[in-house]
């Protein structure tokens, strides 16, 4: 029976073998799984790679329900679970590389991803080359015989560039290179990774899937070709999550569609208001033409969310501090995806270390907002107070 995506979010992972007749799969906590007979133990051992109770680290029915739901939502053949988004990224990469390999990493990647490449992979003898987010066909020039992974993140962290993922995937596959995507911004809802050539779709489920800023959780959904290796290598690396966290992620899926739509509605209203502000040089919201790669957003995405950035016309650390210290409804925090609004700022010189091949060379401060579920008028009034403090400091 065919069904719309909103219905899938409600029904995914609710197989009766996991729910046992109740609406939500129960939280099944277990480290040891016990067997009554040798035959029963041997059967579980043979089937341990599937959704079979074998040992707590392989998962319980709570985990199986969440994994099954993620596969139904994003596609692919299987889903591995991790204690946070960074663990999902690093362990997905580690599952496929070895000494002497080469990784192509988008220059606008999540900062911990860059640190992992520059410190851990380097120590292992694995070289990373960063590439400009809008490189497109030019990625061919960076591919080497030992290139193992092409890592994408679209939109990019902070600067929000939308990548041409289908083109990058097509070229990578011509060279048998694995394509990974940090798909957190789209939450597995607004971008279909496997329809656009991605092999492994990674999310910080901490963000929109959980949606309430109270659980750390990561997911990686792989296609049929790479799922067995991702599954077994991640298991060998000791990756597992608590059943309570898996349950919270599963519960978050049920309201994901309606939350994202409200985040999107609120953020677009504020982004368009910011375009009218004299202090703002430009807004980097993927759904607006001023964002790099907007044409790929229109082609490949089905919607947006609450996370975007804008660039001020000037850079003044004291004025920026005044803005940040004045706003009330916007809190400063290093995550996003919850119901609350957040604000962070980066002065231009910070991109000297955050970027290595495609420094955007902003003259003004970049401010990243996550627009929550508060009333839009209240949020705009809050930002107006912030701009007043900004201007008073700048002109004082």
Automatic annotation (TrEMBL):
Keywords: Amino-acid biosynthesis, Cytoplasm, Lyase, Methionine biosynthesis, Pyridoxal phosphate. NCBIfam families: cysta_beta_ly_B, PRK09028.1. Pfam families: Cys_Met_Meta_PP (PF01053). It catalyses: L,L-cystathionine + H2O = L-homocysteine + pyruvate + NH4(+); an S-substituted L-cysteine + H2O = a thiol + pyruvate + NH4(+). GO terms for cellular component: cytoplasm. It is found in: Cytoplasm. It comes from the Bacteria. Belongs to the trans-sulfuration enzymes family. One of its GO terms (molecular function) is pyridoxal phosphate binding. The modification N6-(pyridoxal phosphate)lysine is found at residue 207. Pathway: Amino-acid biosynthesis; L-methionine biosynthesis via de novo pathway; L-homocysteine from L-cystathionine: step 1/1. PROSITE patterns: CYS_MET_METAB_PP (PS00868). Transmembrane segments: none annotated. CDD domains: CGS_like. It comes from Vibrio casei. This is cysteine-S-conjugate beta-lyase. Its cofactor is pyridoxal 5'-phosphate. One of its GO terms (biological process) is transsulfuration. The keyword tRNA processing does not apply. Its main location: cytoplasm. Its EC number is 4.4.1.13.
């Amino acid at each position: 029976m065919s069904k719309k995506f909103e219905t899938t979010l409600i029904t995914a992972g609710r197989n009766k073998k996991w729910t046992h007749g109740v609406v939500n799969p129960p939280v099944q906590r277990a480290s040891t799984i016990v067997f009554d007979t040798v035959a029963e133990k041997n059967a579980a051992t043979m089937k341990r790679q599937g959704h079979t109770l074998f040992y707590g680290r392989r998962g319980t029915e709570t985990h199986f329900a969440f994994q099954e739901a993620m596969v139904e939502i994003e596609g692919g053949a299987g889903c591995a679970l991790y204690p946070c988004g960074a663990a999902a990224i690093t362990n997905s990469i580690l599952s496929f590389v070895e000494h002497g390999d080469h990784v192509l990493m988008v220059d606008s990647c999540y900062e911990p991803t860059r640190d992992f490449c520059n410190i851990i992979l380097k120590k292992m003898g694995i070289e990373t080359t960063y590439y400009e987010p809008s490189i497109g066909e030019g990625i061919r020039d960076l591919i080497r015989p030992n290139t193992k992974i092409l890592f994408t993140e679209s939109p990019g962290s902070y600067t929000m560039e939308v990548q041409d993922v289908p083109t990058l995937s097509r070229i990578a596959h011509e060279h048998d290179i694995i394509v990974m995507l940090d798909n957190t911004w789209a939450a597995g809802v607004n971008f279909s990774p496997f329809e656009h050539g991605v092999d492994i779709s990674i999310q910080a489920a901490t963000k929109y899937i959980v949606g309430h800023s109270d659980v750390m959780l990561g997911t990686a959904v792989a296609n049929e070709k790479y799922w067995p290796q991702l599954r077994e290598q991640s298991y060998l690396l000791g990756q597992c999550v608590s059943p309570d966290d898996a349950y919270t992620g599963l519960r978050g899926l049920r309201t994901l569609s309606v939350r994202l739509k409200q985040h999107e509605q609120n953020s677009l209203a504020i982004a368009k208001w910011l375009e009218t502000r004299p202090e703002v040089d430009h807004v980097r919201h993927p759904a607006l033409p001023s964002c790099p790669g907007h044409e790929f957003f229109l082609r490949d995405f089905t919607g947006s969310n609450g996370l975007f950035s804008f660039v001020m016309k000037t850079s003044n650390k004291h004025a920026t501090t005044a803005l940040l210290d004045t706003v009330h409804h916007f809190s400063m925090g290093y995550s996003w995806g919850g119901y609350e609004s957040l604000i962070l700022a980066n002065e231009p010189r910070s991109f000297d270390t955050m970027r290595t091949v495609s420094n955007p060379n902003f003259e003004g401060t970049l401010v990243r907002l996550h627009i929550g579920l508060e009333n839009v008028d209240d949020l705009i009034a809050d930002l107006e107070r912030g701009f007043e403090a900004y201007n008073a400091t700048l002109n004082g």
